[in-house]
Amino acid sequence: MKLFGSTTSPYVRKVRVVMAEKKLEYQFEPTDVWAADTDIAATNPLGKVPTLQFLKSGDVIYDSRVIAEYLDTLSPVGKLVPASSRDRLDVKVWEALADGVCDAGALARLEAVWNGRSEAERSQAWINRQLAKVQAGVAEMDRRLGDQPHCCGVHLTLADIAVGCTLGWLSFRFPQIDWRAEHPNLAQLQDKLEQRPSFAETMPG
């Protein structure tokens, strides 16, 4: 398998962490979708990463949620998505919440820094709206986590991976958001996750 992605993308990191936790081998193809000479559209018509290509067939799949769930089926090592409907739903809701925080954060960041707009064209009201979603999403993560050791009980799941990648990206891209001080339970979970080789080896940047 070949994974097209950026080392700063939380969605790509999620897939890379899953790959590591599942002990799957793959080639990593660094890809800047914003570069003028990018050819990512030849592999993914949406022009996004992560994109996973199967080298023998040439087939591709995209969207981190689709890729992560598929990868979990490839190896019995460290099952990340439960089979039972209720537990599975819980993990997928956590993942959607974490990805939603990243979505809002990415929209805020693009509005602030994308060079396709002049300073006069940027909307601070739009940035504030998206950052409010980030704050609300992180607060909901903290509420849902409570004092549990992991998002969905006592074992690592895809929920923890999604949350850990989101929080790591927030610290990387929005250091002014002091989510650790406001949400110590999340900070404790993040510290524990970042001790895992899968997280330590995929730090953004």
UniProtKB/TrEMBL annotation:
<dbReference type="GO" id="GO:0016740">
    <property type="term" value="F:transferase activity"/>
</dbReference>
<dbReference type="InterPro" id="IPR050983">
    <property type="entry name" value="GST_Omega/HSP26"/>
</dbReference>
<dbReference type="Pfam" id="PF13409">
    <property type="entry name" value="GST_N_2"/>
</dbReference>
<dbReference type="Pfam" id="PF13410">
    <property type="entry name" value="GST_C_2"/>
</dbReference>
<dbReference type="InterPro" id="IPR010987">
    <property type="entry name" value="Glutathione-S-Trfase_C-like"/>
</dbReference>
<dbReference type="InterPro" id="IPR036249">
    <property type="entry name" value="Thioredoxin-like_sf"/>
</dbReference>
<dbReference type="GO" id="GO:0005737">
    <property type="term" value="C:cytoplasm"/>
</dbReference>
<feature type="domain" description="GST N-terminal">
    <location>
        <begin position="1"/>
        <end position="79"/>
    </location>
</feature>
<keyword id="KW-0808">Transferase</keyword>
<feature type="domain" description="GST C-terminal">
    <location>
        <begin position="84"/>
        <end position="205"/>
    </location>
</feature>
<dbReference type="InterPro" id="IPR040079">
    <property type="entry name" value="Glutathione_S-Trfase"/>
</dbReference>
<dbReference type="InterPro" id="IPR036282">
    <property type="entry name" value="Glutathione-S-Trfase_C_sf"/>
</dbReference>
<dbReference type="InterPro" id="IPR004045">
    <property type="entry name" value="Glutathione_S-Trfase_N"/>
</dbReference>
<protein>
    <submittedName>
        <fullName>Glutathione S-transferase</fullName>
    </submittedName>
</protein>
